Amino acid sequence: RLSKTLAKALNDQMTKEAHAAQIYLSYAAWADDQGYAGVANFLFRHAHEERNHMMKFLEYILERGAKVIVTAIPAPPSDPSSINNCFEKVFQHEVDNTNAVYNIVNLAHEERDWATFNFMQWFVKEQLEEETLAQTLMDKIKIAGGENAKSDALYALDKDLEKTPDDA
Ligand code: OFO
Asked: Would the annotation count 53 as a binding residue?
């Protein structure tokens, strides 16, 4: 059975993933409203991924016989001020989430809960991929001119993102 500490940490992380989905949803709606359909499409798809992550935590908590506590999800932060700012926020969010994942890995290690340690490895790998992806977005916007990106460069970037594959 999961310890109380780990059950709480995993429940908190489940809510964090739901929060991540809300963040991506809200940025996607913002991007669509700004006319960036490709960016919006990419972010909407990512919101789905975050919800899948939430479900993975939920299912694991149940599997280990602990109580799932579904709580209110905090509201997403304010809208980005530009596409550049949007990608910066996305990157920072992923870095924060990686730290949260690492904290649980540490806890599992301390408690010698190897099942949880093993379960968390999927997220360690996933966060690495997501940080790399977010870093790629920042690189692309940087090449396009960052805050001063010209509209034709943003147009090309938007088209490109419509097709960017996502993973889990
Ligand atoms: Fe759940 O992977 Fe991003 O945050």
From this structure: yes
From first to last of its 168 residues, what are the pLDDT tens digits of the chain? 899 999 999 999 999 999 999 999 999 999 999 999 999 999 999 999 999 999 999 999 999 999 999 999 999 999 999 999 999 999 999 999 999 999 999 999 999 999 999 999 999 999 999 999 999 989 988 988 888 888 888 888 898 888 776 664
Looking from the CA of residue 20, the nearest atom of ligand 1 is: 4
Q: Is any atom of ligand 1 closer than 6 Å to the C-beta of 130?
A: yes
Instruction: Give the position of tokens 């809300």.
Output: 22
Q: How far apart are CA 76 and CA 93, in angstroms?
A: 11
Predicted-assembly ipTM surpassing the 0.90 threshold: yes
Residues 6+ apart with CB under 8 A from 112: none
Residue nearest to atom 1 of ligand 1 (CA): 50
Helices (H), ranges, 34-112: 37-63, 83-111
Q: In whole angstroms, how far apart are CA 119 and each of 5, 57, 109, 157, 162?
A: 16, 9, 12, 36, 31
